[in-house]
Amino acid sequence: MEQDVESPAIMRKPKLRKQTREDLPKQLVEVKRIKKVQRYVQKDGKCNVHHGNVRETYRYLTDIFTTLVDLKWRFNLFIFVLVYTVTWLFFGFMWWLIAYFRGDLDHLSDNQWTPCVNNLNSFVSAFLFSIETETTIGYGYRVITDKCPEGIVLLLIQSVLGSIVNAFMVGCMFVKISQPKKRAETLVFSTNAVISMRDGRLCLMFRVGDLRNSHIVEASIRAKLIKSKQTKEGEFIPLNQTDMNVGYCTGDDRLFLVSPLIICHEINQQSPFWEVSQAYLAKEDLEIVVILEGMVEATGMTCQARSSYVSSEIKWGYRFTPVLTLEDGFYEVDYNSFHQIYETDTPACSARELADMINRPRLPLTWSLASKLSQQGLPESEQEGQETKTNLDSEEKDGQGQTETNGDIANLESESKV
């Protein structure tokens, strides 16, 4: 009798083709290389730098206002509540001490006794009176009397110090709220930078735009190349910053940012990309940091937006898709196409090689023949003979041409006389 026995399923790995197996290590190396790219500035503008081993921490306390403003919101709110609570507790304790040393707490039921503060019978009531005094609430139930000079002095001190604390903390919160950091969230940069031809020259370009209707006043743009270098003396400079000209000489770096603009860096002899080709760029480890600055129209405060492009985000041979269209009586910006690029014909060589090819002069025939003969390995005497023969042949041809021209002119004159 036959029985059905369940056999365990054997999972076999699919065999890959030989070419695929050979390409896998290369792809893994490329993936690892992409993952190892370390940014100096993140795409959202945050600087990827941490300060360690700072021993002179007292310098932060010398500028306590800026330190509080730079703190995160949770710490800022915690300090805000803590400062007020400690102030109220401190002066509440001082009011309780006055009542304790004057004996007000021992004559609570004595109607003939004049206390320093009416209806102050415990530390809790002293704490409530401190809050009412500093915040100028004044419910009217607890009131200081004129028979307590030390209480009057303490009242003056608490009023002055309370005003200082209010000015400091409220000012800190106001500056914290009105910081234009969030304004930079509506200033956008293109995801990629591109390199293509513009007016016969290789140019590196990226696009910037403003999503708000309120504009950035006195907007200006800068670009820095971040790349480690080694000097001729052997000194290694990590993350060296090289300025990239984006129109400083012509004034194109000052922007009227009403609609998205394409910022152009011409790759010339002063450019750090003068000798960079497409193949060299793919292997190079570099980063371009772009900085957009301006004043917020609504508040007048200076705003700065930053972004960066690593070598893998610089696309060679591409251009940006236009985003501005003319509608009925106005211009419309299509931000769906803001980051889109399209491929265009661009030489893969560097700007220096391209300039050499354009400016290379045409060589004379005698020079090219001599060089060709020398490449074939003929003796110098034979080369000179060939050059002389070539020159004589050219002179004879010129003479024959001149004779033929003179003969034609003579025939024309004789025919005109007849």
- Largest sheet features: 5 strands, mixed
Q: Beta fraction of the residues?
A: 15-25%
| Total number of helices | 10
Shape verdict: elongated
- Secondary-structure element series: HHHHHHEEEEEEEHEEEEEEEHHH
Given as residue ranges, the uncertain stretches (5+ residues, pLDDT < 50) are 1-14, 365-390, 397-418
The secondary-structure class comes to alpha+beta
Question: What is the helical fraction, as a range of percent?
Answer: 25-40%
Can you give a write-up of this model?
Helices cover 40% and strands 20% of the residues. It has helices at residues 18-35, 58-62, 64-70, 73-102, 123-134, 149-177, 278-283, 351-359, 365-376, 380-417; strands spanning 187-189, 193-198, 201-210, 216-230, 236-244, 254-255, 261-266, 287-296, 302-310, 314-316, 318-320, 324-326, 331-333, 341-343. The strands form four sheets. Strands 1, 2, 3, 7 and 10 form a five-stranded mixed beta sheet that branches. Strands 4, 5, 6, 8 and 9 form a five-stranded antiparallel beta sheet that branches. The chain has a two-stranded antiparallel sheet with strand order 11-14. α9 (365-376) runs antiparallel to α10.
Task: List strands and helices in order, with pairings.
Blueprint: H1 18-35, H2 58-62, H3 64-70, H4 73-102, H5 123-134, H6 149-177, E1 187-189, E2 193-198, E3 201-210, E4 216-230, E5 236-244, E6 254-255, E7 261-266, H7 278-283, E8 287-296, E9 302-310, E10 314-316, E11 318-320, E12 324-326, E13 331-333, E14 341-343, H8 351-359, H9 365-376, H10 380-417
Parallel strand pairs: 2-10
Antiparallel strand pairs: 1-3, 2-3, 3-7, 4-5, 4-6, 4-8, 8-9, 11-14, 12-13
Helix pairs in contact: 3-6, 4-5, 4-6, 9-10
